[in-house]
From TrEMBL, chain A:
<feature type="domain" description="GST C-terminal">
    <location>
        <begin position="49"/>
        <end position="171"/>
    </location>
</feature>
<dbReference type="GO" id="GO:0017101">
    <property type="term" value="C:aminoacyl-tRNA synthetase multienzyme complex"/>
</dbReference>
<dbReference type="InterPro" id="IPR053836">
    <property type="entry name" value="Arc1-like_N"/>
</dbReference>
<dbReference type="GO" id="GO:0005737">
    <property type="term" value="C:cytoplasm"/>
</dbReference>
<dbReference type="GO" id="GO:0005634">
    <property type="term" value="C:nucleus"/>
</dbReference>
<dbReference type="InterPro" id="IPR053837">
    <property type="entry name" value="AIMP3/p18_C"/>
</dbReference>
<dbReference type="InterPro" id="IPR042450">
    <property type="entry name" value="EEF1E1"/>
</dbReference>
<dbReference type="InterPro" id="IPR036282">
    <property type="entry name" value="Glutathione-S-Trfase_C_sf"/>
</dbReference>
<protein>
    <submittedName>
        <fullName>Eukaryotic translation elongation factor 1 epsilon 1</fullName>
    </submittedName>
</protein>
<dbReference type="InterPro" id="IPR010987">
    <property type="entry name" value="Glutathione-S-Trfase_C-like"/>
</dbReference>
<dbReference type="GO" id="GO:0043517">
    <property type="term" value="P:positive regulation of DNA damage response, signal transduction by p53 class mediator"/>
</dbReference>
<dbReference type="Pfam" id="PF21972">
    <property type="entry name" value="Arc1p_N_like"/>
</dbReference>
Length: 173, 166
């Protein structure tokens, strides 16, 4: 899964030549064998490296506060959204829904690396949701729909149909 | 093209449109008594939404008027909505309730990018005195409003022209 995410990220960043990755251990942790220096290990480490290589440092946040928020969500993506159990899904969606109530992007008003990485990871969960659940987690759905239409992000992933108007009476407000 | 802006009643939506298209359309903005937009000797516009419509059509590549006929119609809907529903005080809360419902599943009002719809609704709220106190009860409108307010063209216009600062 991580290799696919890194390849999508490379395409989003318009990196000219794709890197070669290997995986390590039974958790299939991605490893980037770098020409100059020691190998880079782990999804977030490699992703941050690719962002710097593409000269897009703003994707890691442009203030001390937003940099910390980006790191927080990158860590969330690899810890909470890695090998989660089915019964965790509701909690994940509930927390995320509450958090995104007053935000357009994960780090606030700016698109950062946290958004595409979270989008890649949460895609299978959102794909499985019923129409009514998508409306229940309305903030997650809105954020997800925005990111999947964000120029250059979606790539190999199938689009998720999102209704743009509410159809169920709002009982959870 | 010469654009004169009334200082006592600045046409925020037209100023925002001018700010958005300034890379592709040459407009010089001056301050004066009345809002006037000179296209040629024979043609001029005086009201904010005509001016912003004209500017949006002058720069079709920016997509400010939507990407297709459906979106154009939606943009027209929101231009009318902001002129009629967001200016008169009594039913502002009702209008905000409708807006809140629509914005729950959208980042921008029309399509997936910024359009005149966002500019005009933002401008109408920005100059509405009731909005700051009512804003807290409408979380989706509030999120959308502060998101736009953080974008460069909105900061530029807001700092320079809006009297109703938040």
């Amino acid at each position: 899964m991580a290799l696919r995410e890194l390849s999508s990220l490379e395409k989003y960043l318009r990196l000219k030549k794709p890197n070669k990755y290997i995986t390590q251990g039974d958790k299939k942790v991605p490893v980037l064998q770098h020409n100059s220096g020691s190998p880079l290990v782990g999804l977030v480490t490699i992703a941050c490296h690719l962002v710097k290589e593409a000269k897009r440092p703003e994707l890691l946040g442009d203030s001390a506060e937003s940099r910390a928020m980006v790191q927080q969500w990158l860590e969330y993506t690899v810890t909470k959204l890695n090998g989660y159990r089915k019964e965790d899904i509701k909690t994940i969606l509930k927390d995320l829904n509450l958090y995104l109530q007053d935000k357009v992007y994960l780090a606030g008003n700016q698109f950062t690396l946290a958004d595409p990485l979270m989008y890649f990871r949460i895609h299978p969960i959102i794909l499985d949701l019923a129409v009514q659940e998508k409306e229940q987690y309305v903030n997650v759905t809105r954020w997800f729909d925005h990111i999947q239409h964000y120029p250059g992000v979606r790539h190999h992933l199938p689009p998720v149909v999102v209704l743009r108007n509410r159809i169920y009476p709002s009982t959870h407000h | 093209m010469n654009f004169t802006v009334s200082i006592s009643n600045p046409p925020l939506v037209a100023l925002l449109a001018a700010e958005h298209v300034k890379g592709s359309v040459q407009v010089s903005v001056a301050e004066g008594k009345e809002t006037q937009f000179h296209v040629s000797d024979e043609i001029q516009f005086n009201d904010a939404s005509s001016i912003s419509r004209y500017l949006a059509r002058m720069a079709p590549a920016l997509g400010l008027y939507g990407a297709n006929i459906m979106e154009q119609t939606e943009v027209d809907h929101w231009l009318e909505f902001s002129a009629q529903r967001l200016c008169c005080q009594p039913d502002l809360a009702v209008a905000l309730g409708e807006l809140d419902k629509v914005l729950s599943l959208r980042t921008y009002l029309v399509g997936h990018a910024i359009t005149l719809a966002d500019l005009s609704v933002w401008a109408a709220l920005k100059s509405n005195k009731e909005w700051p106190s009512l804003g807290k009860s409408f979380s989706h409108v509030n999120r959308w409003f502060s998101f736009l307010s953080s974008q460069v063209p909105f900061i530029a216009v807001g700092n320079k022209y809006a009297s109703n600062k938040l």
